[in-house]
Amino acid sequence: QVQLVESGGGLVQAGGSLRLSCAASERTFSRHLMGWFRQRPGQEREFVVGMYWNSGNTYYSDSVKGRFTMSKDNDKNTVHLQMNSLKPEDTAVYYCAVDPHTSALSYSNPRRYDYWGQGTQVTVSS
């Protein structure tokens, strides 16, 4: 059973930056696609960014494009989400997720992902 652990959340003022990290418990598990999602209270989980592991092709939601950057560190078995120019509407719990297999579902569909972290809170004050 793969475990994902997010870290790096916190409180920041609008316009500031945060860097989230997601560490996987096993180095050799299959990672076809990794993604970051976020969820605001009372709302559904929202796609933020997805990265196909082997190719590195990365896709961002329109709401974060140009402000957020997803990267991976193969040696440390970790992915990061660099968040710049943060806005109050970015406030949410952020989750990383892994889809080990190919799928007909879109990379932005949370149902595609089999493994999820516990989430880390990001709060952006105005």
Give your account of this protein's structure.
The protein has strands at residues 4-7, 10-13, 18-24, 33-39, 46-52, 58-60, 68-73, 78-83, 92-99, 115-116, 120-125. The chain is mainly β. The strands form two sheets. Strands 2, 4, 5, 6, 9, 10 and 11 form a seven-stranded mixed beta sheet that branches. It is globular, with a radius of gyration of 14 Å.
Short overview:
The protein has 126 residues and is mainly beta. It has strands at residues 4-7, 10-13, 18-24, 33-39, 46-52, 58-60, 68-73, 78-83, 92-99, 115-116, 120-125.
Helix and strand content put the structural class at mainly beta
The rounded distance between the terminal residues' Cα atoms is 40 Å
Determine the mean pLDDT. Answer: 93
Work out the radius of gyration.
14 Å
Q: Can you tell me the residue ranges where pLDDT is under 50 for at least 5 consecutive residues?
A: none
Range of helix content: under 10%
Percent of residues in β-strands? over 45%
Shape: globular
From N to C, what is the helix and strand string? Answer: EEEEEEEEEEE
The strand count comes to 11
Characteristics:
single chain, 126 residues, mainly beta, 7-stranded mixed sheet, 4-stranded antiparallel sheet, 48% strand
Q: Which secondary structure elements does this structure contain, and how are they paired or packed?
A:
Layout: E1 4-7, E2 10-13, E3 18-24, E4 33-39, E5 46-52, E6 58-60, E7 68-73, E8 78-83, E9 92-99, E10 115-116, E11 120-125
Parallel strand pairs: 2-11
Antiparallel strand pairs: 1-3, 3-8, 4-5, 4-9, 5-6, 7-8, 9-10, 9-11
